[in-house]
Amino acid sequence: MRPATRGTRILERIREFFSPPLFSDDTKARRAKLLSHILNAHFAVALSFGLLYPLRTRENWPLALVALATCIPVLGLRVLLHRGQVTLPAFLFLLFQALTLPLAAFFLGRANSTSALTAFQSVIIVMAGLLIGGRGAFGFAAFNLLANGTLLYAEARGFYSVNNIPPDSGNSLIIQAVTFTTIAAVLAVANRSVREAFAQAGSELEKHRATQGELARATATLRAVLDALPDAIFRISESGEIQDYIPAKGFKPLVPPEEFMGRPLGEFLPPDVTRAAMRTIRLALGNKRTEAFEYQLPRDGKPAYFEARVVPMDKTTVLTIVRDVSGRVQTDADREAMLKVLARRSAYLRIASEVAKSYSRILDPNALIEQAVNLIQEGFGLYYAGLFLVDEAGQQAVLRAGSGEAGKKMLAEGHALRLDEPSMVAWCIQNNQARVAQQAQLDDVRHVNPHLPLTRSEVALPLVSRGQVVGALTVQDTDENAFTDEDIIALQTMSDQLVIALENARLFEAARSELIERQRAEHELQQERDFAVQVMNTLGQGVTVTDENGNFEYVNPAYANLVGYPAAQMLGKNPAEFAHPDDRHLLEDVREPRRGGRVTSYEIRLIRADGNIAHALITDVPRYRDSEIAGSIAVVTDLTEQKRNQEEREILIKELEAKNAELERFTYTVSHDLKSPLITIRGFLGYLEQDALSRSTDRLEDDMKRIAGAVDKMQRLLDDLLELSRVGRLMNPPQEVPFETIVRDALSLVEGQLAARRIQVEVGSGLPKVNVDRARMTEVMQNLLDNAAKFMGDQPEPRVEIGALETAEGYRFFVRDNGIGIEPQYHERVFGLFNKLDARTEGTGVGLSLVRRIIEVHGGRIWLESEGAGKGTTFWFTLAKGEGKV
Amino acid sequence: MIGEPVRVLLVEDNDDHAELIIRQLADHRVANKLIHLTDGQEALDYLYRREKYTDPASSPRPHVIFLDLRLPRVDGLEVLRILKESEDLRVIPVVILTTSESEQDVSGAYSNHVNSYVVKPVDFQKFQKLMDDLGFYWMSWNMVQKDLP
After folding, report:
1. What's the Cα-to-Cα distance from A772 to each of A812, A827, A853, A861, rounded to whole Å?
2. Interface predicted TM-score (ipTM)
3. Strand partners for A813
4. Which chain A residue has the Cα nearest residue B69?
5. Angle at Cα A770 formed by Cα A764 and Cα A776, nearest 5°?
6. Between residues A288 and A845, which one has the greater pLDDT?
7. Tell me: the pLDDT tens digits for A713-770?
8. Do B99 and A839 count as a contact with CB atoms less than 8 A apart?
9. Which of B20, B100, B120 sits opposite A668 (nearest CB)?
10. CA quadruple A274, A280, A286, A290: dihedral sign
11. Is A183's pLDDT higher than 90?
12. Torsion of CA A355, A361, A364, A365, to 10 degrees
């Protein structure tokens, strides 16, 4: 295309502007076209008038200007037209025209010739009819009549005068009305008929178009069909001469067309095909109907199949449509093959399921293998199936099962194939890959087996368990090419299954033997445990086992016995529940060393079921479970007896020590106090001797007295000592006696001393009965009363009070005097042997020792209270109620 | 040394023993300088100038104390202990004069800083000899501290 210059482009635009727009609606398009032309005409007339009119008479220029001015709205109407509006610009244009005419007539008074006005107005009505339609024509007719009527009225009133012409009487208006109405009516009718004509023409065209479309479509379909048709079409004469040929897609003639065109069939087709073709042509022509025949031609070394349909055209020629049916024939063959495969597959499935069933049933590996090879051999209709397993050394594949007689023989011979020697089995084991020999004698590695002379094809399949080749399956057939890919896949699947079953069977056997082993071990363990339990049950020491939470898992009878609860009742409980509250921390303390795996021993007090305390030595040993410390094992030794013995021994030792000390003091005191009178006696005897020698008698009497006094004192000492030693050794049997009796007895013994010092004795009422050695108890009271009398001092109203109080532990008796009293530091000393507070008082100092001894022998104790010198003394002593412990 | 009278405090509860001691010591010109008390409490009262012994003139400090062990009220060893713990009184030599030969008494006395421990012999000859020696030693040989507090 030639490139458009700028000028031509502008011209193009202008032309486009002044051309009518196109509309699909025919009427609209037609009116637009008409309007466009009218507008163009107006534009041209107005423009030329505006430019040319002033040239003639200069004073005409205002009219020229008006004419030019009308060009501008016309352009605007064009724009509306291009915007797709037709009626609106048409209406506006006609309205403008219709207004302009009467106005011009009115103002100019020139164009007022009725005929001219009528002519112009008629044109307007015609245009309205054409541009807007019948109603438009009537509309503008009415408008024009109205305008003209107005003009006439104005003229009659003399608003304007018309030159040279007499005033219209109104006839012109009637003529105009008739003219305009007629024009409008004609236009309306014309318009309808035109529309109808158009509508008819349009529908005709539509029909025509539809027919044409259908035709085109049919042609296209036909074309496509012909194009797609794989057939070649030949026109053949009665004599077999090819007269015409239409080639077909996907059909390449075996001979180029120039070689067969115009020549008889026999020249380029094989005789049998020619014969069949000629027979069919004759048949088709004779029967006047389509006949068909099939034939085969070699193509690219393979047979190609064709189907020819022979259609009689006229009496001597036929159309022969030839189609290549090689594909279909092939497909049929394939389908047959597929069916065969399907049948075989279902057979495999059956065999496989049978094999699987037997696999799952048979748990003895050997039986399983034997069954498997037989099933495979029978199921696949094979000559032979055998199964090899690699021996433990990995040196050779040993035949474990073989089908038929040959199999039995080979098994009996112990048939094995070395893995380093060539054989299909060895190869497939070494390469973990199936080896297929469709023609057995051609295989390079095949081991020729004399027991299987009929083998023509053979497959060896590896048996793989956990990635390890454990053996191989060999299958052999008497035909060559006996094994299809499907067979091999099926066989491989089966061998995989077999391996799994074999593995399962082996595992089962292993599990069974392990089970037996476990049962044996368990039995041994049981026996060991029984032994251990027996030992623990009979053990004198307590044994406890706690779990990881520290609760009892086991306690032996000795421990249960120690604590006093049934063993079953203690299980699951915490040892702390049985420990003395103050000792529970020991159980906590031991945890740390236990965690460290250390053995700890500690003593603890346990609270027995009966509430008594048991002492125990616990040796805590960490308990290991799966090499983790979980709980403890404790050996508990009952220390209660030992503790009691120890305590008793300690008490005895203390008592013994006390006795020893007493004895020591006693012997010491005795020796000291017995020596004193001896020294006195010897000393004064010495002086007596000296005096006797010097015949001096001054001191004789005094010294003799001293000697006699010392002898007396010694006598008393010895008596008292004897008395003291008797207490506890020589006792009278206890008897129940009112204490008052004892007091009376004692009072009668010390009556002299009491009377001499004029001491008043008060005996409390309600003294209880006591169970005592009456004589000894009398001795106690006698000594205490004697003591009171002795240490009364210079008390002007000497008094002694005797009474008793009842307490929880028994009776508490007192002897109270108002004598000299005893200072606190001497309260204990007074009870010591030979201890006297006043050297010059009578007595040996044995009295209170004796009293204490007697009270202690009765299970009581004695003490004194005195607030000091001059405050008097109260001796207290206790005795048990009723019975005295003697 | 001669002519200087030595004051002896004899604490002895046994009158007969006191008579024997005093009689034997009489030869050593100490009889009039000997104070005899019969129990431990009285001896302490005397030395601490308490009760009836508050007047220093009538209760002068002894130069040596002869102390029996078995005494009423306050035992001899207790008296010794109190004396030896006293700043003022520990300077006075104390001789234990007793019938006790007990090892407990001997060690008890020495551990309380006794100056001498003498056992009264039962044999009269020995008793006389001991008293002579004691008198001679303490009243002649032994040098006493003057101006006791």
Report:
1. 14, 26, 14, 14
2. 0.87
3. A804, A877
4. A672
5. 95
6. A288
7. 888 888 887 887 777 666 778 888 999 999 998 998 888 888 888 889 899 888 898 8
8. no
9. B100
10. negative
11. no
12. 30
